[in-house]
Design a protein that fits this description.
Layout lengths: L16 E7 L13 E6 L5 E4 L5 H7 L7 E5 L5 H4 L2 H10 L6 E5 L3 H12 L12 E5 L5 E4 L2 E7 L9 E7 L2 E5 L8 H6 L4 E5 L13 H6 L9 E4 L3 H4 L15 E3 L1
Parallel strand pairs: 3-4, 4-5, 5-6, 10-11, 11-12
Antiparallel strand pairs: 1-2, 1-13, 2-3, 7-8, 8-9, 9-10
C-alpha cells in the first residue's frame, strides 16, 4: 500500500501494547495540557516504557492510574525541560515508594551529565543518597542504536535546537514499533522513523505558520504520502492548532488518549 495508513492498524491476532498519552501538550501547558509523556505497556502488564518525561510527567501518570514503578525504561528525545525535567521526580518517587528494579534511561549525548545536574538543581543533595535501585543512563547518537531490557531504540537526527543533540526515535518493544518525532522541523529522517511503524507519534506544533525547529501541520500534510506508518497521532500542539482542532482531519492526541497496537 502506498503512502500513509494512519487509519489502518496492523492486522494481528492479538493486541500487545497499550499506548497512553499521559502528556500531549507543548512546553507552556497550552489549554491546560500536560507536558510530553507517552506510556507504553503490554496488555499483560509488566515493565513499561516512557517516551519523554516532561516536568509534569509524574502527576500525569498518577492521575491516569499508571504505576511509576512499572516503568523500566525512559527514552528521551532531547534535553528541554518539557521533555526531560520530570526524571528527578520519577527517580525520587521510586526511592520513596520502595522501588527495587533498575531504571534505564536512554537519551541523546549529554543525558548522562544532565540528569545529576537536574537532580541537584531541583533537590540539592539528592545525588548522594543511597537507593535500592540503580539508575543507568545509556546515550545514543543520531544514526546509532541501543538495546536494553527488551527495548531497542534507533536514533535519527531531529531538526531542533536544544543545547545538545535532539533525536527522532524508533522504539521497538513487545513486538511493536512506535515512531516518535520528538520536537523537530520537517526532515526526511521522519520518513525512516515512520516506515512500517505500528504507530507514529508526530509533533504538530502550528497549523501553517513556520516556527524554527518545530513542525507545522501544513508541512506534515505535504509529506503524508511518504509516511508508511500504520497509524498516525499528532501531539505537542500549540494554541494555533488547538483553536482549529475541529477542522483537522488527522488524529490529535489529548491527555489520556489510549491506543492499542
Amino acid at each position: 500500500m502506498q503512502g500513509h495508513r494512519h487509519d489502518q492498524p496492523r492486522a494481528s491476532s492479538e493486541t500487545r501494547v497499550r499506548v497512553t498519552v499521559a502528556g500531549s501538550g507543548d512546553a507552556f501547558g497550552s489549554a491546560g495540557r500536560q507536558q510530553a509523556c507517552i506510556h507504553l505497556q503490554p496488555l499483560t502488564g509488566g515493565p513499561a516504557v516512557l517516551l519523554d518525561c516532561g516536568a509534569s510527567a509524574l502527576s500525569s501518570l498518577k492521575r491516569l492510574g499508571l504505576e511509576p514503578n512499572d516503568i523500566a525504561t525512559v527514552v528521551v528525545s532531547h534535553l528541554h525541560g518539557d521533555h526531560v525535567a520530570g526524571l528527578p521526580y520519577l527517580v525520587l518517587d521510586g526511592q520513596f515508594q520502595h522501588r527495587t528494579g533498575r531504571l534505564q534511561v536512554i537519551g541523546p549525548p549529554g543525558t548522562r551529565a544532565r540528569l545529576p545536574e537536574l537532580m541537584e538543581i531541583l533537590f540539592p543533595g539528592s545525588t548522594t543518597v543511597g537507593r535500592r535501585f540503580e539508575v543507568r543512563v545509556n546515550e545514543v547518537a543520531a544514526g546509532g542504536s541501543v538495546h536494553v531490557g527488551g527495548v531497542t531504540v534507533d536514533a535519527y537526527r531531529a531538526e531542533h535546537a536544544a543545547g545538545a543533540p535532539a533525536l527522532a526515535l524508533r522504539v521497538a518493544f513487545a513486538d511493536r514499533v512506535v515512531g516518535y518525532s520528538g520536537d523537530t522541523a520537517w526532515t526526511d529522517a521522519l520518513v525512516d522513523v515512520a516506515r512500517d511503524a505500528d504507530l507514529f507519534i508526530c509533533e504538530a506544533y502550528t497549523l501553517t505558520r513556520r516556527v524554527p525547529y518545530h513542525l507545522d501541520v501544513a508541512s506534515l500534510r505535504a509529506n503524508l504520502g511518504r509516511l508508511r506508518c500504520h497509524r498516525l497521532l499528532l501531539t505537542h500542539a500549540s494554541p494555533d492548532v488547538l483553536d482549529h482542532r475541529a477542522d483537522l482531519d488527522l488524529p490529535l492526541a489529548e491527555d489520556g488518549t489510549v491506543i492499542l497496537i
